[in-house]
Amino acid sequence: MTQTQHAQKILVTGATGTVGRQVVAELLARGHAVRALTRDPAKADLPAGVEVVQGDLTEPDSLVPALEGVTGVHLITFGGAYFAPLETGPRILELARAAGVRRVTVLHGGEATPLEEAVRADDGVEWTVLMPVEFMGNALEWADGIVASGEVREPFVSRLSAMVHEGDIGAVAAVALTEEGHGGQEYVITGPELLTVGDKVSAIAAARGQAIALVELTEEQAVAQWRAAGHPEPVIGFLLEAYGNTPEVGRTVVDTVEKVTGRPARTFGQWTGENAEAFKAG
């Protein structure tokens, strides 16, 4: 922290999720106090020093104790046991303003949601919408196949992705929650490079020190594989569209991470180095 900054207490919702854990870690690394909201504190498994509290975003009044004394809140757009889109945004924001919350970040859920719309419409807090592209962690879906047979089976292998390290999403969130100048911003967050499926597989192979075969599937073969894996039809439809016709935003590198945090976005090579063991047998 610079001399002009001071330690703050931040409430992180969705703190046990993929991005939420990174927001928590980055805030701690920057010297801030973290209060983590979860429906089941006993299962949170968060770092020492994190204040874990019980609450449910589908029941906004359960957040009243959690909001006491915090200056910023990180929000997700889905909640409850079935992760339905939250309809409680206006009440959550009303309670946050009453508690003196100054800044809010919201993790974009991939489409318009009632909670994000409520955040964008609120002029009582400094809000920032975080819009990450494909997570580097999605590559972990290949781990079982790589360990079992030394191969990755995917369609559309020439598709391009500006995939982002989840830690960089957490870093952008932490800055937006604790520093001036990010209110009213919509931040698309990407990694520093465009990667094909082959590029990703090569990076994993280098990290684990063993070759990996890339098997390109037809659309029909891919659909059959996804169905066998238990994916529901809406998810399969989404995957076909996302992989076969990747939106421009998902295949365009932007420098948000460096602009906001002051350091370059982490590469997929760095991510594979951190996660190499997941792709090794035994």
Automatic annotation (TrEMBL):
Record-annotated NAD(P)-binding domain positions: 14-108
Recorded superkingdom: Bacteria
Protein name, UniProt field: NAD(P)H-binding protein
Organism whose genome encodes this protein: Streptomyces lanatus
